[in-house]
Automatic annotation (TrEMBL):
Residues making up the signal peptide according to the UniProt record: none
High-level lineage: Bacteria, Bacillati, Chloroflexota, Chloroflexia, Herpetosiphonales
Name of the protein: Histidinol-phosphate aminotransferase
Record note on quaternary structure: Homodimer.
Molecular function terms from GO: histidinol-phosphate transaminase activity; pyridoxal phosphate binding
Modified residues (N6-(pyridoxal phosphate)lysine): 223
Assigned EC number: 2.6.1.9
């Protein structure tokens, strides 16, 4: 019999799997700690969860046995005034990850170059490998800011098809200045700005979509609206390009429950914006507290997390010691983030517990 394992594409066989964060139940079993005693600050989830009325709306929905609208009409009509873009430029996905995948499948041919600036969100390099593209990294500077001119040079040198930049950047929290976006839009490449954390920041360039044919902006309801488990994100995409994404997206890619939750969330924007302000204030309180701790160096952030370099001791060991106490942080093994941890913004009592645990471990 033929060796059927040869049927796998060689580039896929060589592809390194993406490493996601584990859910509560798995973590609880691994740590031997009840779920209710775990403080989960490792995945940038919203500690307040969805707006209170979302659960009621989900309970009352009578249409779970019916396929969702493939045209996403109600969703796009509701998102349009919220984001200030016409529905013709809006496409929803199973998380903004799906929009990243669709964009690459439409634009990237084998060996086409996709550029991102590490340390950054790992899905850009991962998806480039999935579609057979070639990923080129343009490292950030010592403050984790994008080297705009080095990036521009790389676009021209490699004739890059796409550039992906989160703003604020994950996991460093940097916001990309508007003037830098305008500079990059002059380049012969598709610029994709991932604004997953925009509601916690002081800036957005969503208004520029439609004015520049090479700009796409991604958004999500995972962070601001607390709907990470329901997976709904969206792209703001020029008309010339979005028509091709509609051709290849799965017909029923957004589920009924996610649609119900998003529509109800968009009816609760005032409450969700108030929560976001509370999280920003808590971020600043935690940042100030971390600044006073000998052996830790936090980096300023405009997202719902803080990156912190462990200057004394080993970050992996610190993460493990905190996990034994039921406090979960993100640790990175890549060289750009050597000895760094990332702390998601939680409730005030979560941060108080973190600071107390750090003190117990000798970080005062």
């Amino acid at each position: 019999m033929a060796d059927v394992t040869q049927f796998v594409r060689p580039d896929i066989a060589a592809l390194e799997a993406y490493t996601p964060i584990q859910p509560f139940d798995v973590l609880s079993e691994q740590l031997g700690i009840p779920i209710e005693h775990i403080i989960k600050l490792d995945a940038n989830e919203n500690p307040y969860g969805p707006a209170p009325s979302v659960a009621e709306a989900l309970r009352d929905c009578p249409f779970y046995a019916i396929y969702p609208d493939p045209d996403q009409t109600r969703l796009r009509r509701a998102i349009s005034p919220f984001i200030g873009q016409p529905i013709e430029r809006i496409l929803c996905g199973n998380g903004s990850d799906e929009i990243i995948d669709l964009l690459m499948r439409v634009l990237v041919q084998p060996n086409d170059v996709v550029i991102a600036c590490p340390p950054t969100f790992g899905m850009y390099s991962f998806n480039t490998g999935v579609v057979g593209g070639r990923f080129v990294a343009v490292p950030r500077d010592d403050n984790f800011d994008v080297d705009i001119e080095a990036l521009a040079d790389a676009v021209l040198e490699h004739q890059a098809k796409m550039v992906f930049l989160p703003s604020p950047n994950n996991p460093t929290g940097n916001l990309l200045a508007r003037e830098h976006v305008l500079r990059l839009l002059k380049l012969p490449t598709m610029l994709v700005l991932d604004e997953a954390y925009a509601e916690f920041s002081s800036g957005s360039v969503a208004d520029l979509v439609g004015h520049y044919p090479n700009l796409v902006v991604l958004r999500t309801f995972s962070k601001w609206a607390g709907l990470a488990g329901l997976r709904l994100g969206y792209g703001l995409i020029p008309e010339w390009l979005i028509t091709h994404l509609w051709k290849i997206k799965q017909p029923y890619n957004t589920n009924v429950a996610a649609e119900v939750a998003v529509l109800q969330s968009l009816a609760e924007t005032e409450a969700l914006n108030a929560r976001a302000k509370i999280m920003v204030a808590e971020r600043e309180r935690l940042f100030a507290a971390l600044q006073t701790i000998d052996g830790l160096t936090p980096f300023p952030s405009q997202a719902n997390f803080i990156l912190c370099r462990v200057e004394r001791g080993d970050a992996a060991q610190l993460k493990a010691d905190l996990a034994k106490r039921g406090i979960l942080l993100r640790y990175y093994r890549n060289p750009e983030l050597a000895n760094c941890i990332r702390v998601s913004i939680g409730l005030p009592e979560h941060h108080d517990a973190l600071l107390a645990a750090l003190a117990d471990l000798g970080y005062r």
